Amino acid sequence: MAQNPVLVPYIRTAHYYETDKMGVVHHSNYIRWLEETRIDLMNQAGLPYTEMEAMGVMIPVVSASCNYKYPVKFGDTVEIHPYITEFNGCRFRLEYEIRNLTSGKLSATCNTSHCFVNMQFKPIRTQKEFPQIYEIFNNCIKVKI
Amino acid sequence: MAQNPVLVPYIRTAHYYETDKMGVVHHSNYIRWLEETRIDLMNQAGLPYTEMEAMGVMIPVVSASCNYKYPVKFGDTVEIHPYITEFNGCRFRLEYEIRNLTSGKLSATCNTSHCFVNMQFKPIRTQKEFPQIYEIFNNCIKVKI
Amino acid sequence: MAQNPVLVPYIRTAHYYETDKMGVVHHSNYIRWLEETRIDLMNQAGLPYTEMEAMGVMIPVVSASCNYKYPVKFGDTVEIHPYITEFNGCRFRLEYEIRNLTSGKLSATCNTSHCFVNMQFKPIRTQKEFPQIYEIFNNCIKVKI
Amino acid sequence: MAQNPVLVPYIRTAHYYETDKMGVVHHSNYIRWLEETRIDLMNQAGLPYTEMEAMGVMIPVVSASCNYKYPVKFGDTVEIHPYITEFNGCRFRLEYEIRNLTSGKLSATCNTSHCFVNMQFKPIRTQKEFPQIYEIFNNCIKVKI
Fold first, then answer.
1. What residues contact residue C131 under an 8 Å CB cut-off, 6+ apart?
2. Domain ranges of chain B
3. Active-site hit among D20, D36, D53, D86
4. How large is the ipTM?
5. Is the pTM of this model over 0.90?
6. Options 3.60.40.10, 3.40.50.2300, 3.10.129.10, 1.10.443.10; CATH of D10-140
7. Please, what are the averages of pLDDT over each run of 10 residues along chain C (145 residues)?
8. Using N-to-C axis directions, what is the helix angle for D131-140 and D27-45, rounded to 10°?
């Protein structure tokens, strides 16, 4: 419990419908891949998103940012490495590397920040109100994936 | 009230992010345009979708179908003509023509069918339970747009 | 070569961003899942889509249709069974069953039809012009998955 | 020609399919709205994106960033104010304010940066190679919209 969990990166392949007429994946889809990555990370950490929602907790995106380096093409496989850099019980911040396994290039570096809210979008302090959520996030801070 | 409303087609322009690497609008987006068209039609008919939802009524898609004839390119303007062909208070069916004003070609003919449900996804008979919804849909049947 | 290949269904999990405010996966995304399924099927059959494109052949969607039976929720896993029902070298038709493994229900039955075109969107007769493509599709007709 | 053009903000309404199960517009769609806004701005400035592409010039996104302040709901109308803050002939940067006209709140502040490339994704110096593009962008720098 007190130990850091073993976490692996998220892997997925670029879909045809994710490309645009430039012939590469549209940049907005990277933002969606980050969401897939967070949800996969939470699954691995033992806190499936659906369970957290069933507890009445959501984690809306407060900010999102991407630096696009090399395009991803249809059919390319990307490996996304998330990294929780900040967490204080009320908010957290993630950094991500999107590595294109097909081209061998770093495709993008991104980050998102989030807060914890209830179903009425009111801020939550997880340490006091949801200690089990607090503990899981706290165990994942700065775990290299 | 008893009169058919005057309705106009829905017009919109194809976005860059709606294209795929084939260089034309991805076929899945047509299905989304039909939704925009229905919502515009309901606005025109005096029943904004948000108001209907506030009354506790939703109209999920039971079936959707498209015949794709000529591709739509980025920047093309399409005019979508909806036509309510069936309505019995519990279900309705729409046919659509997607006309590409830029190319002058008929891009697609489509149809969708829907049922009325409450927030628990239980079927609703609008004639008895929501006569104002019933009347508005009933006035729109077979109105040529 | 003359033998039917062994093919397995396509499995994937519903993403958060694929839901809408009704709380379930938006119906337009099923159309995208069918594309993922076709591309997976072609990979399995030994004809990756990117290779076919590199040969100058594309398979645009001529029609698409879905009957929606039970909603898919965020996090649900679906198993999609494609089935090539028609193929004549110029066109083909697929039927699909989307089975929700999480709920145990049949979520949708769908179909798409396609033609073979070159990069200028001109129709292609694969039997004559691309016999290797013809053979692969021909081996997959009516293979139960 | 030497005069700054008169530019107006971009206005659009949030679509149903842009919402997610949180009941508000999914954050990834804001990135797509920025693209719509850029393309509208270029239209207004006299350089339609399709014309620029026909000249062999593309402007891929190098970075994109959003700070989300208040959610946008289905049916809300947003007014997006773009502002070109930097341009040197090779690259440019835009800032955006997304104002929710329905709620009266500032929904998000965003920025994107772009480079000019040819169809082989090689960097272009517009001042030398495409002076008409250079002039149009140069006239738009720091024009308040």
1. none
2. 18-140
3. D20
4. 0.95
5. yes
6. 3.10.129.10
7. 76 98 97 98 96 96 98 98 97 98 98 97 97 96 85
8. 110
